[in-house]
Amino acid sequence: MGRGWKLFIIAIAAAAVLSGAGLLTLSWWLPRLAGFWLPAATTVRLDGNPRWRSGALWLPGLRYRTGDCELARASNVTLGSAAGRWKLGATLLEVNSACFSKLSTSSDQPAAPRSLAEWQSMLPKADVAIERVSLLPWQSWAGALRLNLDPQRQLIYWQGENLSLRAVLAGQQLDVQSLALSVAGMTDPITMNGLLTLPKIPDRLPDSGELAATLKTASVPQPLRASLNWQQNSGTLTLRAQDLEEPLLLLPWRVSAQQIAISQGKWRWPWAAQPVSGGVALTLKDWRQGLPGMEVTGRLNVLTQGRGGKGNVVLSVGPGHLDWTQSELPFRLTGESKLAQLLFFVGIPGKLQGPLLDPVLRLQPGALLRMRGRLLSTLEVDEARWPLSGVAVSSAGIEGRLQAILSAHDNQMGRFRLHLDGRATGFWPDKGRWLWRYWGDGLMAPLAAKWDVKGRGSWQDRQIELASLSTGFDQIRYGGVTMAAPRLTLARPVRWLRDEKTPAFSASLRLNAQRTSLDSGGYLPPAELMLDLNGSDPARFLYKSKLTADPVGPVRIQGRWDGTRLRGQAWWPQQSLRVFQSLLNDDLKMSVRGGTLKAQVAFSAAADQGFAAGGHWVVSDGSVRTPDNQFTGIDFSLPFRLQAGQWYFGAKGPVSLRIKAIKNQFALKNIRADLQGWYPWSAARPLRLSNVGVEVLGGELSLLSLQLPQTEAATLRLKAISMSELVTAIQPKKIAMSGRVDGALPLWLQNSAWLVKEGWITNSGPLTLRLDKDFADALASGNIATGAAMDWLRYMEISRSRATLNIDNKGEMTMTAQVNGTSRFSDKNQHVSLHYTQQENIFQLWRSLRFGDNLQSWTEQHATLSAQGKTE
Question: Residue 793 in 3-state DSSP?
């Protein structure tokens, strides 16, 4: 073989090794791939015939094979000479690392040069330029390679998307002027530089050297500095943060002909939620025999401190070996991890098997992960268990049985226990299959309810399906409501197709509840809620639902969920009020006789906004009857808005109440009231009651305006109230009265002293008072003064009367009255002027239902003029 071809093959081999194995493995692979000392069972094949182009030899393709494995191939290779230097170029060079293990190490091969100086002395003056060099399967590190070679000095340039290098080798000194690596998780490329002294015989690591690197990552608030120093057969790798004295990583290492050992290594990480630290040890025996013959043993531990004291988790690996085709490396993860609120207990034995580039992690019998502690602010996990025996993890997916058991309790909410059991077959998210079933039960203390859940589902490639679900309570009891056996089931499976082009999400749920009882004695018939969901995924869908509790309803709801905000509208179609009869206790003897209800509400809910709603409720021509009262012509309109926990009543007009008539002891007609404003109210957002009025006792009661918070008195006005109708209504047995009165009662609802301040009542025309003869005679028989008074009051025409009324916030009423009139007795007219003061607790007065007898009793007790009245 000519010297030119020998140099050509040497250059190709040198380019392949430099691009693939890196500086430290150069001395290992270079003797095996060197030019004309090709290992046994290797061949070089040309793709097509060589040609002469532009003053250079051109080869369309060149392939280098070892056995049936193609170790390297080059495309568009050119070899020429200019100005006394060889020019070697190619557009592509690919090296397959999987073929390295098949290179022969037969002693029959010709002896290659041993020393680095011998290698360098054989180098011609040459320039090598390859547009793209790629080492499989690490194509992400591919780049362009340029070499400037001569026996005294060799320059190396590499430029790729994720790796760039500039280095100079002069004799035994390798000067790494710049090295930049782009690594996932780093905000900037890792930059490195340093100086290495290579051994005379390139069959071991460099004799000495120092490398320095700078790293920046999003998880660390400051730049990191790494340094690698060594002398002869030992050295130290150190990683520090810029402003911290204690290193983050300290790995002392030693190399001998038999092993590479890292001993008493230390690491720590102060930026986690809980600072952690630990130690590292690693031994690589028989490392010079390559991966298949190298034995790996190591240990890594993690120290934690939190709830329950200190914890230590240890990962032990080996003894075992890693191989390109069949690795066998046992490991065991054991110990306790004690975080701030959680405790983890781990015991996981396993093996790393299979090809090094595509291994399988197999967990052995007894593999178990447990956890307990406080998961949320109030949720205490009694025990969580993940049995992992027999599970295998590889690039193809997870294989084996997947289980989880969770027992937890909340001091306020109750306790529960959940189980998950299933099997995975080649499963990764959106790839393979995972079938599961789940079940559980618990107690929800606030509702005094036991609950249960069960179902099954699957994740097949891109589709997640919940095939069955049944969950419910034996009862729900809250406040004065008891709901019997509510249960949620699937009317149609939940299906989620996670496809990028045609995603789909659908489900149909049914919530059934038996009779709902009220402590007041009423009940709501069995109810059903149907909910249909359709969209692209659980974060974006439309929904429709219908709520019925025959004969109540149906109430229809529809809307959408966009991942951050829930929007919707609800309609309650016009329906007879009689359907609510069951909500009333039979003991009330209240009968809903007629009327209709309809409503419409729009709402939205979001984390940043809370719950907001607005709508309109309308009751028309309602009619209700009780043994003592009958309400007819009830019209009620309630427009409202709700946002940030505050109600606004009267969004498009005031809340309006109209009642045509109330028949009871007092006949009330044309009752009206309007309400508009905010609740809870404030000075900036008041609530106002206005246009209040009712026709009663032949006259009218009215309230022009009442504002809360109250800044002025709200005056209740009486106009032309008929005393004869009042007396007839209260039914005193011995007293008769006729005429009309007017009045004004300034009301204070938010006053530290008064309910009514300086109210007044006066007659609007003549008043007549008449006492029954037998009643008056009985009163007059007591004493002379009372008898004289009764003579004046037997029949009295009042021309002028005025009473001043004050009521404090405890209900104590003080009334001062002056009455002027003419008394007729024994066919004689006498002018009467009466002054008196009355004190009474009106709260006690209202408790009496026999108002007429109460008034009569009052008259009997106060029918005396001594110290209270006088005549003229």
Answer: helix
Long-range contacts of 312-316 (CB under 8 A, 24+ apart): 312/336, 313/337, 313/344, 313/346
Q: CB–CB of 210/189 below 8 Å?
A: no
Query: Could you tell me which residues come within 8 angstroms of residue 319 by beta carbon, excluding any fewer than 6 positions away?
Result: 295, 296, 297, 330
Q: Residue 692: is its pLDDT beyond 80?
A: yes
What does the pLDDT read at residue 271?
77
Looking at 60-199, list the stretches that DSSP marks H as alpha helix, in order from N- to C-terminal side. Answer: 116-122
Cα–Cα nearest to 443, from 478, 491, 418, 409: 409
Token readout for 443 is 């107690």
Distances (CA, A) of 229 to 27, 208, 238, 825: 20, 8, 9, 131
Question: Is 27:157 a contact under the CB 8 Å cutoff?
Answer: no
| Comparison of pLDDT for 67 and 498, the residue scoring more | 498
Residues 6+ apart with CB under 8 A from 258: 285, 286
Rounded to 5 degrees, what angle do the CA atoms 832, 834, 837 make?
170
* Percentage of residues in the chain having pLDDT higher than 90: 28
Asked if 614 and 640 touch (Cβ cutoff 8 Å), the reply is yes
Helix axis angle, 851-862 relative to 723-730, nearest 10°? 110
CA–CA gap between residue 409 and residue 416 (Å, rounded): 6
pTM beyond 0.70 = no
pLDDT at 190 over 70: yes
Phi, psi of 581 (to 5 degrees): -60, -35
In the β-sheet with 523-524, what is the strand arrangement from edge to edge? 475-478, 481-484, 516-518, 523-524
Distance CA 362, CA 329 (A): 10
Alpha carbon 143 to chain centroid distance? Answer: 45
pLDDT value at 204 more than 70:
no
Higher model confidence: residue 243 or residue 800?
800
Distance set, CA 595 to CA 294, 574, 635, 640, 798 (Å): 91, 10, 9, 22, 46
Task: State the sign of the Cα–Cα–Cα–Cα dihedral 641, 647, 653, 656.
Answer: positive
- 137 upstream amide cis, omega within 30 of 0: yes
Q: In 10 A of CB 486, how many CB atoms? A: 20
By the 8 A CB rule, do 546 and 532 touch?
A: no
Q: Of 182, 188, 186, 183, which is closest to residue 164 (Cα–Cα)?
A: 182
- Tokens representing 614 are 């607005």
> Which residue is it, tokens 């020019």?
87
| Rounded Cα gap, residues 787 and 790, in angstroms | 5
From CA 554, how far away is CA 569, in angstroms rounded? 14
Q: How far is CA 250 from the centre of its chain?
A: 40
Rg (CA), the chain: 49
Mean pLDDT in the chain?
Answer: 82
